[in-house]
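[09:14] KT: can someone run the structure on this one? pasting the chain below
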Amino acid sequence: MNNTTRTKVLVIDDDIEIQELMIAFFKPKGFQVSVYDDAQKALDELSTGKALCDVIICDLQLPSISGIEFTKKLKGLGLDIPIIMITANKAIEIAIQAVETGAYDFVLKPIPFPQLLVSVERALHFNKIKSDNNALRTAFQLKDGILGEEIIGKSPGFKKVMDLAKRVAGSQANIFINGESGTGKEVVAKAIHNMGSRKNKEFVALNCASIPENLLESELFGHTKGAFTGAIEKKMGLFEEAEGGTLFLDEIGDLSFPLQAKILRVLQERQIKRIGENKYRKVDVRILSATHRDLRKEVAEGKFREDLFYRLNVIEIKIPPLRERTEDILPLADFFMKKFSALNNVNVKGFSKTALEEMHSYSWPGNVRELENAIERAVVMCTSGVIQLDDLPERASHRLPSTDNATGFNFSNVNTGRTLTIDEVVQRYIKYVLDKNDGVKEKTALDLNIDRKTLYRKLKEIEIHAN
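[09:31] RB: done, C-alpha coordinates below
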Protein backbone atom coordinates (compact mmCIF):
# COMPACT_ATOMS: atom_id res chain seq x y z
CA MET A 1 0.00 0.00 0.00
CA ASN A 2 1.06 3.63 -0.39
CA ASN A 3 2.37 5.87 2.37
CA THR A 4 2.60 3.21 5.05
CA THR A 5 5.70 4.69 6.72
CA ARG A 6 3.61 6.16 9.52
CA THR A 7 1.01 3.39 9.77
CA LYS A 8 1.15 1.81 13.23
CA VAL A 9 0.11 -1.81 13.71
CA LEU A 10 -0.45 -3.08 17.25
CA VAL A 11 -0.28 -6.86 17.64
CA ILE A 12 -1.74 -8.65 20.68
CA ASP A 13 -0.71 -12.32 20.86
CA ASP A 14 0.94 -14.38 23.61
CA ASP A 15 2.71 -16.57 21.06
CA ILE A 16 6.28 -15.23 20.65
CA GLU A 17 6.65 -16.96 17.26
CA ILE A 18 3.53 -15.17 15.96
CA GLN A 19 4.88 -11.84 17.30
CA GLU A 20 8.17 -12.36 15.46
CA LEU A 21 6.39 -13.34 12.23
CA MET A 22 4.23 -10.19 12.40
CA ILE A 23 7.29 -7.98 12.86
CA ALA A 24 9.18 -9.76 10.06
CA PHE A 25 6.24 -9.40 7.66
CA PHE A 26 5.05 -5.84 8.33
CA LYS A 27 8.26 -3.91 9.15
CA PRO A 28 9.90 -4.32 5.70
CA LYS A 29 6.70 -2.92 4.18
CA GLY A 30 7.09 0.33 6.09
CA PHE A 31 4.73 -0.34 9.00
CA GLN A 32 5.58 0.45 12.62
CA VAL A 33 4.85 -2.64 14.70
CA SER A 34 4.37 -2.87 18.47
CA VAL A 35 3.58 -6.19 20.18
CA TYR A 36 1.81 -7.12 23.43
CA ASP A 37 1.28 -10.52 25.00
CA ASP A 38 -1.33 -9.14 27.42
CA ALA A 39 -4.57 -7.64 26.12
CA GLN A 40 -5.32 -5.83 29.39
CA LYS A 41 -1.95 -4.08 29.35
CA ALA A 42 -2.54 -3.03 25.72
CA LEU A 43 -5.99 -1.73 26.68
CA ASP A 44 -4.58 0.28 29.60
CA GLU A 45 -1.88 1.89 27.47
CA LEU A 46 -4.30 2.63 24.62
CA SER A 47 -6.77 4.26 27.04
CA THR A 48 -4.09 6.56 28.51
CA GLY A 49 -2.56 7.47 25.14
CA LYS A 50 0.73 5.75 25.97
CA ALA A 51 0.15 3.41 23.03
CA LEU A 52 -0.97 4.72 19.64
CA CYS A 53 -1.96 2.72 16.58
CA ASP A 54 -3.96 2.77 13.35
CA VAL A 55 -5.03 -0.88 13.35
CA ILE A 56 -5.01 -3.74 15.87
CA ILE A 57 -4.37 -7.42 15.12
CA CYS A 58 -5.59 -9.44 18.10
CA ASP A 59 -5.64 -13.14 18.90
CA LEU A 60 -9.01 -14.50 19.99
CA GLN A 61 -7.64 -16.68 22.82
CA LEU A 62 -5.49 -14.73 25.30
CA PRO A 63 -4.46 -15.44 28.92
CA SER A 64 -5.97 -12.39 30.65
CA ILE A 65 -9.03 -11.34 28.66
CA SER A 66 -10.25 -12.76 25.36
CA GLY A 67 -10.02 -10.94 22.06
CA ILE A 68 -13.82 -10.45 22.09
CA GLU A 69 -13.76 -9.01 25.61
CA PHE A 70 -10.87 -6.74 24.59
CA THR A 71 -12.89 -5.51 21.61
CA LYS A 72 -15.93 -4.75 23.81
CA LYS A 73 -13.83 -2.79 26.32
CA LEU A 74 -12.00 -0.86 23.58
CA LYS A 75 -15.30 0.18 21.98
CA GLY A 76 -16.61 1.08 25.43
CA LEU A 77 -13.74 3.57 25.81
CA GLY A 78 -14.84 5.26 22.58
CA LEU A 79 -11.63 4.30 20.75
CA ASP A 80 -12.58 3.71 17.11
CA ILE A 81 -9.60 1.61 16.02
CA PRO A 82 -10.24 -1.23 13.52
CA ILE A 83 -9.56 -4.67 14.98
CA ILE A 84 -8.68 -7.76 12.96
CA MET A 85 -9.19 -10.96 14.95
CA ILE A 86 -7.02 -14.03 14.36
CA THR A 87 -8.21 -17.45 15.53
CA ALA A 88 -7.66 -21.17 15.06
CA ASN A 89 -11.36 -21.80 15.71
CA LYS A 90 -13.07 -22.46 12.39
CA ALA A 91 -16.59 -22.26 13.86
CA ILE A 92 -18.63 -19.66 11.96
CA GLU A 93 -20.38 -18.67 15.20
CA ILE A 94 -17.08 -17.35 16.60
CA ALA A 95 -16.49 -15.21 13.52
CA ILE A 96 -20.01 -13.80 13.69
CA GLN A 97 -19.61 -13.03 17.40
CA ALA A 98 -16.30 -11.24 16.75
CA VAL A 99 -17.80 -9.04 14.02
CA GLU A 100 -20.95 -8.32 16.04
CA THR A 101 -18.79 -7.22 18.96
CA GLY A 102 -17.07 -4.66 16.75
CA ALA A 103 -14.15 -6.40 15.06
CA TYR A 104 -13.57 -5.26 11.48
CA ASP A 105 -12.50 -8.67 10.15
CA PHE A 106 -11.17 -12.09 11.21
CA VAL A 107 -8.41 -14.32 9.81
CA LEU A 108 -8.00 -18.06 10.44
CA LYS A 109 -4.74 -19.68 11.58
CA PRO A 110 -2.34 -20.66 10.17
CA ILE A 111 -2.13 -17.01 9.21
CA PRO A 112 -2.24 -16.33 5.44
CA PHE A 113 -0.10 -13.17 5.57
CA PRO A 114 -1.01 -11.84 2.08
CA GLN A 115 -4.69 -12.07 3.06
CA LEU A 116 -3.92 -10.40 6.40
CA LEU A 117 -2.19 -7.53 4.58
CA VAL A 118 -5.25 -7.02 2.36
CA SER A 119 -7.46 -6.99 5.45
CA VAL A 120 -5.22 -4.40 7.14
CA GLU A 121 -5.23 -2.16 4.05
CA ARG A 122 -9.02 -2.42 3.73
CA ALA A 123 -9.48 -1.61 7.43
CA LEU A 124 -7.26 1.47 7.12
CA HIS A 125 -9.08 2.60 3.98
CA PHE A 126 -12.48 2.08 5.59
CA ASN A 127 -11.45 4.04 8.68
CA LYS A 128 -10.17 6.92 6.53
CA ILE A 129 -13.47 7.12 4.64
CA LYS A 130 -15.37 7.06 7.94
CA SER A 131 -13.09 9.78 9.35
CA ASP A 132 -13.56 11.94 6.23
CA ASN A 133 -17.34 11.51 6.43
CA ASN A 134 -17.34 12.47 10.11
CA ALA A 135 -15.22 15.53 9.30
CA LEU A 136 -17.63 16.59 6.56
CA ARG A 137 -20.63 16.01 8.82
CA THR A 138 -19.04 18.05 11.61
CA ALA A 139 -18.07 20.82 9.21
CA PHE A 140 -21.64 20.95 7.88
CA GLN A 141 -23.06 21.17 11.40
CA LEU A 142 -20.61 23.90 12.35
CA LYS A 143 -20.61 25.93 9.13
CA ASP A 144 -23.12 28.59 10.28
CA GLY A 145 -21.75 29.00 13.77
CA ILE A 146 -24.64 26.97 15.13
CA LEU A 147 -24.30 23.59 16.82
CA GLY A 148 -27.61 21.83 17.37
CA GLU A 149 -30.10 24.38 18.67
CA GLU A 150 -27.60 26.64 20.43
CA ILE A 151 -25.40 29.50 19.29
CA ILE A 152 -22.02 29.74 20.94
CA GLY A 153 -22.03 32.42 23.65
CA LYS A 154 -22.47 32.29 27.42
CA SER A 155 -21.92 35.91 28.47
CA PRO A 156 -24.86 37.76 30.07
CA GLY A 157 -24.88 40.27 27.18
CA PHE A 158 -25.12 37.60 24.50
CA LYS A 159 -27.64 35.52 26.46
CA LYS A 160 -29.84 38.63 26.61
CA VAL A 161 -29.56 38.95 22.81
CA MET A 162 -30.58 35.34 22.27
CA ASP A 163 -33.41 35.48 24.80
CA LEU A 164 -34.87 38.44 22.91
CA ALA A 165 -34.32 36.68 19.58
CA LYS A 166 -36.26 33.64 20.82
CA ARG A 167 -39.14 35.81 22.05
CA VAL A 168 -39.57 37.66 18.76
CA ALA A 169 -38.80 34.77 16.37
CA GLY A 170 -42.43 33.65 16.22
CA SER A 171 -43.76 37.10 15.33
CA GLN A 172 -43.92 38.60 11.84
CA ALA A 173 -42.46 41.95 12.97
CA ASN A 174 -39.50 43.46 11.13
CA ILE A 175 -36.38 43.24 13.28
CA PHE A 176 -33.41 45.59 13.26
CA ILE A 177 -30.08 44.14 14.42
CA ASN A 178 -27.45 46.64 15.46
CA GLY A 179 -23.81 45.95 16.21
CA GLU A 180 -20.25 46.56 15.16
CA SER A 181 -18.88 44.78 12.10
CA GLY A 182 -18.08 41.16 12.77
CA THR A 183 -20.25 40.73 15.86
CA GLY A 184 -22.41 38.03 14.28
CA LYS A 185 -25.46 39.90 13.03
CA GLU A 186 -26.17 37.42 10.24
CA VAL A 187 -25.81 34.46 12.61
CA VAL A 188 -28.44 36.00 14.91
CA ALA A 189 -30.67 36.79 11.93
CA LYS A 190 -30.45 33.19 10.71
CA ALA A 191 -31.22 31.93 14.22
CA ILE A 192 -34.36 34.11 14.33
CA HIS A 193 -35.43 32.67 10.98
CA ASN A 194 -34.75 29.08 12.11
CA MET A 195 -36.73 29.53 15.32
CA GLY A 196 -39.73 31.12 13.60
CA SER A 197 -42.72 29.92 11.57
CA ARG A 198 -40.86 30.60 8.27
CA LYS A 199 -38.01 28.17 9.02
CA ASN A 200 -39.03 25.79 6.23
CA LYS A 201 -38.82 28.58 3.64
CA GLU A 202 -35.78 30.39 2.24
CA PHE A 203 -33.41 32.58 4.27
CA VAL A 204 -31.84 35.00 1.79
CA ALA A 205 -29.04 37.36 2.86
CA LEU A 206 -27.63 40.41 1.06
CA ASN A 207 -24.81 42.72 2.10
CA CYS A 208 -25.96 46.07 0.73
CA ALA A 209 -22.44 47.51 0.96
CA SER A 210 -20.87 44.83 -1.23
CA ILE A 211 -23.02 45.39 -4.36
CA PRO A 212 -22.37 48.39 -6.66
CA GLU A 213 -25.19 50.93 -6.54
CA ASN A 214 -26.14 50.43 -10.20
CA LEU A 215 -26.64 46.67 -9.64
CA LEU A 216 -28.25 46.70 -6.21
CA GLU A 217 -31.77 47.53 -7.40
CA SER A 218 -31.67 44.68 -9.92
CA GLU A 219 -30.37 42.33 -7.24
CA LEU A 220 -33.28 43.19 -4.96
CA PHE A 221 -36.17 43.52 -7.40
CA GLY A 222 -35.04 41.61 -10.49
CA HIS A 223 -35.32 42.77 -14.10
CA THR A 224 -36.75 41.85 -17.48
CA LYS A 225 -34.71 40.92 -20.52
CA GLY A 226 -33.30 44.05 -22.16
CA ALA A 227 -34.23 46.33 -19.25
CA PHE A 228 -30.71 47.79 -19.35
CA THR A 229 -27.34 47.12 -20.98
CA GLY A 230 -26.20 43.66 -19.92
CA ALA A 231 -29.69 42.38 -19.05
CA ILE A 232 -29.51 39.50 -21.52
CA GLU A 233 -32.24 37.52 -19.78
CA LYS A 234 -34.91 38.10 -17.16
CA LYS A 235 -33.90 37.71 -13.54
CA MET A 236 -35.82 37.10 -10.35
CA GLY A 237 -34.85 39.44 -7.49
CA LEU A 238 -34.09 38.51 -3.91
CA PHE A 239 -37.52 39.60 -2.67
CA GLU A 240 -39.05 36.93 -4.90
CA GLU A 241 -36.40 34.35 -3.98
CA ALA A 242 -37.27 34.84 -0.31
CA GLU A 243 -41.02 34.39 -0.90
CA GLY A 244 -42.63 33.00 2.24
CA GLY A 245 -39.32 33.22 4.07
CA THR A 246 -36.90 35.84 5.35
CA LEU A 247 -34.81 38.48 3.59
CA PHE A 248 -31.85 39.70 5.63
CA LEU A 249 -30.49 43.07 4.49
CA ASP A 250 -27.08 43.60 6.08
CA GLU A 251 -25.52 47.09 6.15
CA ILE A 252 -28.81 48.66 5.17
CA GLY A 253 -27.38 52.01 6.24
CA ASP A 254 -25.39 52.02 2.98
CA LEU A 255 -28.53 52.21 0.80
CA SER A 256 -28.97 55.32 -1.36
CA PHE A 257 -32.05 57.53 -0.84
CA PRO A 258 -33.79 56.28 -4.02
CA LEU A 259 -33.41 52.66 -2.92
CA GLN A 260 -34.50 53.54 0.60
CA ALA A 261 -37.74 54.89 -0.89
CA LYS A 262 -38.29 51.70 -2.89
CA ILE A 263 -37.67 49.46 0.14
CA LEU A 264 -40.15 51.58 2.12
CA ARG A 265 -42.77 51.08 -0.60
CA VAL A 266 -42.29 47.30 -0.45
CA LEU A 267 -42.76 47.35 3.32
CA GLN A 268 -45.93 49.42 2.99
CA GLU A 269 -47.55 47.72 0.00
CA ARG A 270 -46.06 44.21 0.12
CA GLN A 271 -45.42 44.16 -3.61
CA ILE A 272 -42.49 44.71 -5.94
CA LYS A 273 -41.92 45.57 -9.57
CA ARG A 274 -39.02 44.23 -11.61
CA ILE A 275 -36.90 46.75 -13.51
CA GLY A 276 -38.38 47.15 -16.99
CA GLU A 277 -41.83 45.87 -16.00
CA ASN A 278 -45.10 47.66 -15.28
CA LYS A 279 -46.55 44.66 -13.47
CA TYR A 280 -46.53 44.57 -9.66
CA ARG A 281 -45.96 41.24 -7.92
CA LYS A 282 -47.14 40.47 -4.39
CA VAL A 283 -44.46 39.29 -1.98
CA ASP A 284 -44.71 37.71 1.46
CA VAL A 285 -41.33 38.28 3.03
CA ARG A 286 -40.19 39.04 6.56
CA ILE A 287 -37.47 41.70 6.62
CA LEU A 288 -34.56 41.47 9.03
CA SER A 289 -32.03 44.28 8.67
CA ALA A 290 -28.70 45.17 10.24
CA THR A 291 -25.98 47.78 10.22
CA HIS A 292 -22.86 48.80 12.11
CA ARG A 293 -23.86 52.45 11.72
CA ASP A 294 -25.74 54.56 14.26
CA LEU A 295 -28.93 54.94 12.20
CA ARG A 296 -30.54 57.27 14.74
CA LYS A 297 -27.65 59.64 14.19
CA GLU A 298 -27.91 59.13 10.42
CA VAL A 299 -31.63 59.99 10.59
CA ALA A 300 -30.90 63.12 12.65
CA GLU A 301 -28.29 64.19 10.08
CA GLY A 302 -30.65 63.57 7.17
CA LYS A 303 -28.61 60.65 5.80
CA PHE A 304 -31.30 58.00 6.31
CA ARG A 305 -35.07 58.17 5.92
CA GLU A 306 -36.84 58.43 9.25
CA ASP A 307 -39.98 56.67 7.99
CA LEU A 308 -37.96 53.70 6.72
CA PHE A 309 -35.99 53.51 9.96
CA TYR A 310 -39.15 53.14 12.03
CA ARG A 311 -40.59 50.60 9.59
CA LEU A 312 -37.46 48.49 9.92
CA ASN A 313 -36.93 49.05 13.62
CA VAL A 314 -40.13 47.54 15.02
CA ILE A 315 -37.94 45.48 17.34
CA GLU A 316 -34.27 46.29 17.87
CA ILE A 317 -31.64 43.77 18.93
CA LYS A 318 -28.25 45.21 19.83
CA ILE A 319 -25.29 42.81 19.80
CA PRO A 320 -22.47 43.89 22.14
CA PRO A 321 -18.91 43.83 20.74
CA LEU A 322 -16.67 40.93 21.70
CA ARG A 323 -14.56 43.13 24.00
CA GLU A 324 -17.69 43.62 26.17
CA ARG A 325 -18.42 39.88 26.37
CA THR A 326 -15.02 38.37 27.04
CA GLU A 327 -16.64 35.23 28.48
CA ASP A 328 -17.49 34.29 24.89
CA ILE A 329 -13.93 34.48 23.52
CA LEU A 330 -12.69 31.08 24.63
CA PRO A 331 -15.89 29.09 23.84
CA LEU A 332 -15.95 30.70 20.38
CA ALA A 333 -12.25 29.97 19.89
CA ASP A 334 -12.85 26.32 20.80
CA PHE A 335 -15.82 26.20 18.42
CA PHE A 336 -13.80 27.64 15.52
CA MET A 337 -10.90 25.30 16.29
CA LYS A 338 -13.24 22.29 15.91
CA LYS A 339 -14.81 23.77 12.79
CA PHE A 340 -11.55 24.40 10.93
CA SER A 341 -9.99 21.16 12.18
CA ALA A 342 -12.93 19.34 10.59
CA LEU A 343 -12.77 21.37 7.37
CA ASN A 344 -9.03 20.80 7.01
CA ASN A 345 -9.21 17.21 8.30
CA VAL A 346 -6.48 17.82 10.89
CA ASN A 347 -6.35 16.84 14.55
CA VAL A 348 -5.94 20.03 16.59
CA LYS A 349 -7.02 19.32 20.16
CA GLY A 350 -6.71 22.60 22.05
CA PHE A 351 -4.77 25.73 22.97
CA SER A 352 -1.68 26.30 25.07
CA LYS A 353 -2.15 28.25 28.30
CA THR A 354 -0.24 31.23 26.86
CA ALA A 355 -2.36 31.30 23.71
CA LEU A 356 -5.56 31.20 25.79
CA GLU A 357 -4.37 34.05 28.02
CA GLU A 358 -3.41 36.25 25.07
CA MET A 359 -6.67 35.60 23.22
CA HIS A 360 -8.63 36.47 26.34
CA SER A 361 -6.75 39.74 26.91
CA TYR A 362 -6.83 40.96 23.27
CA SER A 363 -9.56 43.50 22.45
CA TRP A 364 -10.63 41.91 19.11
CA PRO A 365 -11.56 45.13 17.25
CA GLY A 366 -12.79 43.00 14.33
CA ASN A 367 -14.99 41.06 16.78
CA VAL A 368 -16.07 37.46 16.11
CA ARG A 369 -15.05 37.62 12.45
CA GLU A 370 -11.48 38.57 13.41
CA LEU A 371 -11.41 35.77 16.00
CA GLU A 372 -12.64 33.29 13.41
CA ASN A 373 -9.95 34.37 10.92
CA ALA A 374 -7.29 34.13 13.63
CA ILE A 375 -8.30 30.60 14.64
CA GLU A 376 -8.49 29.44 11.01
CA ARG A 377 -4.91 30.65 10.51
CA ALA A 378 -3.82 29.04 13.78
CA VAL A 379 -5.31 25.66 12.85
CA VAL A 380 -3.53 25.72 9.48
CA MET A 381 -0.22 26.80 11.05
CA CYS A 382 -0.37 24.43 14.03
CA THR A 383 2.15 21.58 13.94
CA SER A 384 1.95 20.19 17.48
CA GLY A 385 -1.75 19.38 17.82
CA VAL A 386 -2.07 22.23 20.35
CA ILE A 387 -2.33 25.84 19.14
CA GLN A 388 0.61 27.87 20.43
CA LEU A 389 1.04 31.63 20.76
CA ASP A 390 3.19 31.71 17.61
CA ASP A 391 0.37 30.10 15.60
CA LEU A 392 -1.87 33.12 16.19
CA PRO A 393 -1.64 36.28 14.03
CA GLU A 394 0.62 38.96 15.46
CA ARG A 395 -2.30 41.27 16.24
CA ALA A 396 -4.11 38.65 18.31
CA SER A 397 -0.94 37.63 20.17
CA HIS A 398 0.15 41.19 20.97
CA ARG A 399 3.25 40.74 18.80
CA LEU A 400 2.59 43.64 16.42
CA PRO A 401 5.64 45.66 15.44
CA SER A 402 5.62 49.17 16.87
CA THR A 403 3.44 51.71 15.06
CA ASP A 404 4.15 54.75 17.21
CA ASN A 405 4.57 57.08 14.27
CA ALA A 406 1.62 58.94 12.78
CA THR A 407 0.67 56.35 10.24
CA GLY A 408 2.47 53.11 11.12
CA PHE A 409 3.58 53.07 7.44
CA ASN A 410 7.27 53.27 6.59
CA PHE A 411 7.53 55.38 3.45
CA SER A 412 11.29 54.85 3.39
CA ASN A 413 10.57 51.32 2.17
CA VAL A 414 8.81 52.71 -0.90
CA ASN A 415 11.67 53.01 -3.35
CA THR A 416 10.61 52.93 -6.97
CA GLY A 417 13.24 55.24 -8.39
CA ARG A 418 10.58 57.89 -9.02
CA THR A 419 8.11 59.99 -7.11
CA LEU A 420 4.86 58.17 -6.44
CA THR A 421 1.58 59.74 -7.49
CA ILE A 422 -0.94 60.48 -4.75
CA ASP A 423 -3.17 57.65 -6.09
CA GLU A 424 -0.28 55.18 -5.79
CA VAL A 425 0.45 56.29 -2.23
CA VAL A 426 -3.25 55.89 -1.33
CA GLN A 427 -3.37 52.43 -2.92
CA ARG A 428 -0.26 51.26 -1.07
CA TYR A 429 -1.54 52.60 2.24
CA ILE A 430 -4.93 50.91 1.80
CA LYS A 431 -3.14 47.63 1.06
CA TYR A 432 -0.98 48.15 4.17
CA VAL A 433 -4.00 48.73 6.44
CA LEU A 434 -5.85 45.76 4.91
CA ASP A 435 -2.83 43.51 5.57
CA LYS A 436 -2.55 44.90 9.10
CA ASN A 437 -6.19 43.93 9.69
CA ASP A 438 -5.67 40.38 8.36
CA GLY A 439 -7.90 41.11 5.36
CA VAL A 440 -10.91 42.19 7.44
CA LYS A 441 -12.54 44.78 5.15
CA GLU A 442 -15.00 46.15 7.70
CA LYS A 443 -12.23 46.98 10.16
CA THR A 444 -10.09 48.43 7.35
CA ALA A 445 -12.88 50.78 6.23
CA LEU A 446 -13.41 51.83 9.85
CA ASP A 447 -9.70 52.53 10.38
CA LEU A 448 -9.52 54.53 7.14
CA ASN A 449 -12.73 56.42 8.00
CA ILE A 450 -14.33 55.58 4.66
CA ASP A 451 -17.50 53.68 3.87
CA ARG A 452 -17.21 50.12 2.67
CA LYS A 453 -18.40 50.88 -0.84
CA THR A 454 -15.48 53.27 -1.25
CA LEU A 455 -13.11 50.61 0.09
CA TYR A 456 -14.48 47.97 -2.32
CA ARG A 457 -14.07 50.43 -5.21
CA LYS A 458 -10.50 51.28 -4.19
CA LEU A 459 -9.59 47.60 -3.86
CA LYS A 460 -10.99 46.98 -7.34
CA GLU A 461 -8.78 49.79 -8.66
CA ILE A 462 -5.77 48.26 -6.93
CA GLU A 463 -6.54 44.89 -8.51
CA ILE A 464 -6.84 46.47 -11.98
CA HIS A 465 -3.60 48.42 -11.45
CA ALA A 466 -1.80 45.22 -10.38
CA ASN A 467 -2.87 43.43 -13.56
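[09:33] KT: thanks! The chain is about 45% helix and 15% strand.
[09:34] RB: yep, looked fine to me
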